[in-house]
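Illustration 12: Oxaloacetate decarboxylase, gamma chain.
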Amino acid sequence: MTTLQIITESLKTTLFGMGLVILTLYVLSIILQLSRIVFYPAASLKRAKISQIEASAEVKEENFVDEVINGKTQSENLQDDSELIAIITAAVAAYLETSTINLKVNSIRQIHQKSPVWAVTSRIENTRSHIVHDIKKGEICK
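Figure caption equivalent — predicted structure in token form:
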């Protein structure tokens, strides 16, 4: 065999091998997509749930617009906030076994609900240490 024939045969072998690998990877990707459809039908259920949530959000938005149009004022919302502050203050006082006179709620904000356990524990311990520190300094009674 001449050098030209050897190079030609090696190029043919290389191209055949590359083509076979590409074809195998394509068939494998098709098999994986089919297995996802067969074994994980929950993905389509999640899409349905998302559409339901979006629909309920639209209904809530329409209800909010109706409340605004029908004249629910901001003072009623402020009254709801003061009731919420009173409830939270009472709950904290009961938890700390102290009077509500010794507590002052400065702000209320929602904490992300999907926090890991260690983050929630850290927040609780941090809050307790600040409350104890403020009680010792006498700042809570102000």
